[in-house]
Write a sequence for this structure.
């Protein structure tokens, strides 16, 4: 056992005692049943949607219990920190509605960056060393590798424990000599070395058993690092206590660490929190289930949903339904407000079904008013598609008419817009700035009709186009146009004598549809032409008709106001 004076010389002279931190971070003044939870991501990469899922559960439980939820960034492994991740975290937290309840700059239980809490950790490491519950270890990497090799050769559990723990019970004089020589060291926790298994109650899984921890784990990294930071395990114990967390919601991969964490809480004299270990999000791959992977799956990143423009309320609704199945059966607004219950979280990982999410997004967007849709599209496009923002801003009335096509005044509104990024592909043809005129009569979208006939159809339509609010009256002019150019009135007539006709009425109508929308598939053409205005309709058809023939007169009558 090292003398207290020697232990104290290993730490800054002005390092506070633990009592200082206890007074600075007193128990929270909350109702007895209030849950204090946290989300503690590491800035070593993007926010995994599974992390956002866990944070959503943690925040919801805190909110419905009258408690507090906060975000703490666990950046003790600074060698793996990714540049720019702080901005990505902010975007992801805001998108999923899991931003901290507390000001993460000036909040009462900060700092909320573990790297800024160095002095707090050092106070408690020193206290454990004073009580001989922690000790310096001077083993090199090569020595640790040799210990592992020998354990494997004799088929013993690997680790730094018992007689394998070279510096656990080293002679104090040898330790002093190493310290005096300035040899680098880490600080290890002196594990009780309990054999057998330890049990604990999980808020989701009930009573669990796991192998007891025997290892003398590192709790403070090498003396040569600056700042000198703890490992995750020690920071976890200190931070949950001082930040007064009483419910830790985290992934199931941490279950095996609970025995160690309980040992650390006991050694520090802290009341351990309740644990709730969440099953991971899964996906189907080649007929089998596996975890949603950062390396393999684009949809594992929250940025994927942001960049594609999945509407946030729909994504949150979907995730809440994965957590508690009953929420998936409720209307969206109600499901977003109802509490998530830990007891209803399954122990098998829920399957992420992107097809189902797309359906939910389509249903959700179909309920939004046109101006709201346009505002959401503009907000999404502000950094991702500035040209689209400019076009919508410059054609706001046209945009509102376009977005209402087959959405307003119909029994079954269209649901093809499921992500904000789809807006350009679905609605872009309404805007002259984004529409590419169809000028080639041999374009394959025109169905292989003779080019001369295509131009004649387009020119005739433009010469006689008349707007009518009544769809049957409006479409009659297309029917008459097709008849003038020899098209069969229907499929039955055409199939009876195909050599007598260049095509069917549908083929003639397709020429106009492609000229006006750029596609063989589009919303109701009458509604599209109403939104565009007669001037724009004729302009597009004329591009396919080619130069005007001598003596032709192209008129536009009775049309809605052109944009």
């Amino acid at each position: 056992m090292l003398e207290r004076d020697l232990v104290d010389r290993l730490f800054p002279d002005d390092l506070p005692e633990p009592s200082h931190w206890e007074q600075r971070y007193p128990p929270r003044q909350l109702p007895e049943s209030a849950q204090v939870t946290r989300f503690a991501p590491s800035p070593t990469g993007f926010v995994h949607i599974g992390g956002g899922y866990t944070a959503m559960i943690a925040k919801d439980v805190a909110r419905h219990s009258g408690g507090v939820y906060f975000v703490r960034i666990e950046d003790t492994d600074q060698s793996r920190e990714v540049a720019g991740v702080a901005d990505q975290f902010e975007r992801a937290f805001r998108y999923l509605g899991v931003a901290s309840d507390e000001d993460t700059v000036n909040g009462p239980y900060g700092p909320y960056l573990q790297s800024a809490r160095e002095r707090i950790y050092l106070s408690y490491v020193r206290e454990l060393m004073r009580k001989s519950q922690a000790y310096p270890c001077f083993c090199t990497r090569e020595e640790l590798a040799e210990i592992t090799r020998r354990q494997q050769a004799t088929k013993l559990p690997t680790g730094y424990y018992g007689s394998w723990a070279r510096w656990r019970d080293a002679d104090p004089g040898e330790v002093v000599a190493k310290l005096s020589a300035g040899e680098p060291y880490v600080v290890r926790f002196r594990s009780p070395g309990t054999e057998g298994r330890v049990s604990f109650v999980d808020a989701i899984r009930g009573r669990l058993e796991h192998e007891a921890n025997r290892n003398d784990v590192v709790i403070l990294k090498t003396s040569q690092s600056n700042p000198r930071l703890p490992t995750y395990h020690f920071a976890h114990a200190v931070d949950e206590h001082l930040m007064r967390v009483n419910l830790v919601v985290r992934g199931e991969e941490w279950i095996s660490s609970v025995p160690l964490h309980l040992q650390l809480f006991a050694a520090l004299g802290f009341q351990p929190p309740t644990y709730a270990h969440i099953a991971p999000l899964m996906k189907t791959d080649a007929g089998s289930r596996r975890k949603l992977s950062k390396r393999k799956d684009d949809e594992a990143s929250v940025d994927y949903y942001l960049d594609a423009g999945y509407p946030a309320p729909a994504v949150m609704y979907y995730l809440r339904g994965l957590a508690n199945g009953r929420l998936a059966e409720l209307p969206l607004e109600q499901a977003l407000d109802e509490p998530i219950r830990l007891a209803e979280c399954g122990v098998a990982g829920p399957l992420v079904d992107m097809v189902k999410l797309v359906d939910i997004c389509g249903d959700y967007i179909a309920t939004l008013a046109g101006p709201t849709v346009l505002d959401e599209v503009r907000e999404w496009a502000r950094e991702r598609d500035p040209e689209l923002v400019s076009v919508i801003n410059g054609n706001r009335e046209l945009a509102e008419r376009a977005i209402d096509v087959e959405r307003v005044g119909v029994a079954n509104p269209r649901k093809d817009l499921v992500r904000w990024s789809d807006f350009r592909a679905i609605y872009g043809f309404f805007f002259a700035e984004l529409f590419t005129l169809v000028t080639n009569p041999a374009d394959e979208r025109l169905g292989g009709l003779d080019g001369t006939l295509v131009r004649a159809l387009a020119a005739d339509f433009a010469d006689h186009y008349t707007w009518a609010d009544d769809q049957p009256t409006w479409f009659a002019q297309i029917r008459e146009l097709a008849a003038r150019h020899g098209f069969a009135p229907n499929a039955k007539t055409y199939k009876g004598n195909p050599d007598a006709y260049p095509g069917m009425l549908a083929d003639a109508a397709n020429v106009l549809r492609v000229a006006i929308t750029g596609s063989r598939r589009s919303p109701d053409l009458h509604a599209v032409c109403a939104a565009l205005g007669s001037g724009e309709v004729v302009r597009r058809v004329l591009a396919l008709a080619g130069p005007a023939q001598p003596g032709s007169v192209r008129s536009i009558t009775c049309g809605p106001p052109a944009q």
Remarks:
- The mean pLDDT is 94.
- The first strand starts at residue 36 and ends at 39.
- DSSP finds 23 helices and eleven strands in the chain.
- The radius of gyration is 34 Å.
